[in-house]
Write a structure and sequence with these properties.
The protein has helices at residues 13-26, 49-66, 72-75, 89-100, 105-117, 126-135, 140-149, 151-167, 196-208; strands at 2-8, 31-35, 45-46, 85-86, 175-180, 183-187, 222-223, 226-227. By secondary structure, the protein is of the alpha+beta class. A hairpin with a 2-residue loop joins strand 7 and strand 8 (226-227).
């Protein structure tokens, strides 16, 4: 049995950078989404000019490195909307709600990322989340109801993710761990950003390797203290 654990946050720019890699991996094996809560509680970020100046160089670097699109509605809309707040908890709950309703959790995550980085949507707002859930085929009323009951399960999910990241000595988001017949192999992200086909070949090589050990990863990543 081979599967991939993906440690992510929906408002992590480098997770958006890795989205094509995760899509390619999902063509090969099950991908388990492990949300860590980058911007929750005291780490929620109100949008202001300081935040805009901080995130834009990272976003421009991501776009240049990977080709992932960023929209004007994000750069000059959302990042100038001083009534908006970057809060990871509602979109994490949305991904978990999609999964609970039998939907495609990864499709929900990728829809959230596009809504945030391309369309400049407030993905911490319930009405926005419900509309996005409907856009991937989920029933709006059932989704809204599920969002109202999964706050405690989301908190437990985030804590479990953080414990597992500590156990595996993972530094931040995005992080990947390949599980091969119960053995866990951390997977380098950085060398493959923007190269999904090469990443697929790398996974195949790891699965077939007798040592099942990946090279050290010097990829940029995000933690509650900031992004590299």
């Amino acid at each position: 049995m081979v599967e991939l654990d993906y440690f992510y946050d929906p408002i992590c720019g480098w997770c958006y950078a890795a989205a094509p890699l995760i899509s390619k991996a999902r063509e090969m094996m099950p991908v388990n989404l492990r949300a860590g809560g980058l911007m929750i509680g005291a780490n929620r970020q109100p949008v202001n000019e300081s935040l805009r100046r901080y995130v834009m160089p990272h976003d421009q670097r991501i776009q240049a490195l990977t080709g992932q699109p960023f929209g004007d509605a994000y750069f000059n809309g959302l990042l100038r909307d001083q009534d908006a707040v970057f809060d990871s908890e509602p979109p994490i709950r949305a991904v978990l709600a999609a999964e609970s309703l039998g939907g495609d959790a990864l499709a929900m995550l990728h829809r959230l990322q596009r809504a945030h980085y391309v369309e400049g949507e407030r993905i911490a707002d319930l009405a926005t989340l419900t509309r996005l859930a409907q856009s991937i085929g989920l029933d709006g009323e059932r989704f809204t109801a599920q969002m109202s009951v999964n706050a405690s399960s989301a908190a437990a999910h985030i804590q479990a993710t953080r414990r597992e990241m500590t156990r595996l000595s993972l530094r931040g988001y995005p992080s990947l761990a390949l599980i091969i017949d119960g053995s866990v192999v951390p997977v380098a992200v950085g060398p493959h950003l923007g190269k999904p086909d090469a990443f697929a070949a790398h996974l195949e090589a790891l699965i077939g390797s007798k040592t099942q050990k990946d090279d050290a990863d010097d990829a940029p990543f995000c933690t509650p203290d900031g992004c590299s």
